[in-house]
């Protein structure tokens, strides 16, 4: 049996070691978070600009396109591809419907 009672000084030194280890761990966490934030910022800066206009394609390659959208439309599906202003105007003129939410026909000046 160990009947030796540690001195107050021994206990304080033990506490110091524990706190130094905790501080080192916290510093690692901060460094990791700073690295993740820097990576995120690099990703945001490297992201290509959003297209001005989108063409939402049909469910398969034989289905006609569904809608023309503005580039920032919240309702543009995953099957959308970017297009130029002239292509968007041509698609609307060819009978592809304008998205009822973003109304690209209004932005393009093509109202009936």
Question: What's the rounded overall pLDDT mean?
Answer: 92
Radius of gyration: 30 Å
Distance between the termini: 96 Å
Structural class: alpha+beta
Quickly list its features.
single chain; 112 residues; alpha+beta; 4-stranded mixed sheet; 3 helices; 46% helix; rod-shaped
Report on the architecture of this protein:
This protein is of the alpha+beta class and 112 residues long. The protein has two domains: 7-47; 53-107, no CATH class. Helices cover 46% and strands 12% of the residues. The protein contains three helices and four strands. It has helices at 8-46, 85-93, 104-107; strands at 53-56, 67-70, 80-83, 97-98. A four-stranded mixed β-sheet has the order 3-1-2-4. It is rod-shaped and about 95 Å long. The model has no long low-confidence stretch (mean pLDDT 92). It holds the Pfam family DUF6233. InterPro entries: DUF6233. This is DUF6233 domain-containing protein.
Short note summarizing the structure:
Pfam families: DUF6233. It comes from Streptomyces cylindrosporus. It contains 3 helices and 4 strands.
Write the layout of secondary structure elements.
Elements lengths: L7 H39 L6 E4 L10 E4 L9 E4 L1 H9 L3 E2 L5 H4 L5
């Amino acid at each position: 049996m160990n009947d030796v009672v540690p001195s107050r000084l021994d206990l304080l030194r033990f506490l110091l070691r524990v706190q130094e280890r905790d501080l080192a761990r916290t510093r690692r966490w901060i460094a990791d978070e700073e690295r993740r934030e820097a990576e995120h910022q690099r990703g945001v800066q490297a992201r290509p600009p959003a297209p001005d206009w989108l063409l939402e394609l049909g469910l398969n390659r034989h289905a006609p396109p569904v809608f023309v959208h503005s580039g920032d439309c919240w309702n543009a599906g995953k099957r959308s591809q970017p297009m130029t202003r002239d292509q968007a105007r041509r698609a609307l003129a060819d009978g592809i419907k304008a998205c009822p939410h973003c109304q690209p026909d209004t932005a393009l000046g093509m109202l009936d």
